[in-house]
Structure formats: C-alpha cells, structure tokens
Amino acid sequence: MDLGDFRRLFGDNIRAWMNWDLLQVSRVAISARVITDRDKLGDLRTVWYENRAGGPGDWRDAESTPLSVGEAVEHREFWTPQRRDRIDAFSSQYLRYTEPVLLTIPAYATPRGALMLDSTHRAAAAYLSKADVRLLVIAIIGPISAEILPDLAHHNIISTETRA
C-alpha cells in the first residue's frame, strides 16, 4: 500500500486536519499492525483533547492535552450528547456481536505510537464495551510535522521543519 491507496481507502473520511499536498511531496511509507489486546487499544492516541479546565479541548488550543482512547473513555463526562449517543450506539452493537469486533483504523505513526486520524468513536465504544477486538491499524509513516498534521504539535515530538 502507498499513500495513494491510503488516501483512496480513508482520505475523504478522515476528520483530522491533514495537509495532503505537503504529505504527497514527502517521503512516506504505510505500515499495518494488528492489535488484539484491549489495553493496547486503550493506549492508542486520539485527536480528542481535554482543556485545562477539564472540558473538551481542541488542537488549536496549545494548552489542551491529547487523550488516548482509554483516557477519552475515562473523561466521558464532558462528551457532547451527540458523541455520547454515537459511542453508546456502537457499544450496544458491539455487545451483541458473537464474533470479535473488527475495526480498521487510519493513523499516523509517531515515536510514541499510533495517532488515530479517525474511527475514534468506534474505538472508544469497543474499549468501553470491553468487546473482543481485532484492530487493523494502517498508519502513515511520514514527517513528524505540525505543518502536515497540526495534532502532532501536542505530542512534543515534532521539529519545526518538515522533512522531505
């Protein structure tokens, strides 16, 4: 799989802001990893944030803290009603499954692990429901640059320049 395949598979559905044009001219690779451990699901980083006051944050707020799937579930008191309803619906669905829940997760690889670009509602629901999960995390391995993915600025791992 190359970046074109990744974009055809996920691009229009990814809600995290990405500079696809800059990414396109960068050296990238795509990795695939299978996760079957609930704790490892909980460790996946999300593009959901908590602000300093303990409420929902945003990537545009430098003081907001990014949450892992496990942390997002722990902080569900600040979910919007829409987020809560969506996660509850997925969670209820997953509890009815007799087979493992299968999720394909688009991500961006970082030195601290995969940063999910989308499917956070589904991942949070699977984690919350304690369902038996099988995740296929398909991650872009590219420059660690906030110019490409602003969320990376919150992970204290980026340089100020984009590598080509």
Q: Could you tell me the number of beta strands?
A: 6
- State the shape: globular
Cα(first) to Cα(last) distance is 20 Å
Estimate what percentage of residues fall within beta strands: 15-25%
**N-to-C order of helices and strands:** HHEHEEHHEEHE
Helix/strand-derived class? alpha+beta
- Contiguous low-pLDDT stretches (5 residues minimum) are 158-164
Biggest β-sheet, characterized? 4 strands, mixed
Measured as a percent range, the helix fraction is 25-40%
- Integer-rounded radius of gyration: 16 Å
Give the number of helices.
6
Strand order in space, largest sheet: 1-6-4-5
Number of domains: 1
Mean pLDDT: 88
Q: What does this protein look like?
A:
A hairpin with a 2-residue loop joins β4 and β5 (113-116). The two termini are 20 Å apart. The protein has one domain (3-155). Residues 158-164 have low confidence and may be disordered. It has 164 residues and is α+β, with helices and mostly antiparallel strands. The chain is built from 6 helices and 6 strands. A 4-stranded mixed beta sheet has the order 1-6-4-5. Strands 2-3 form a two-stranded antiparallel sheet. α5 crosses α6 (120-129).
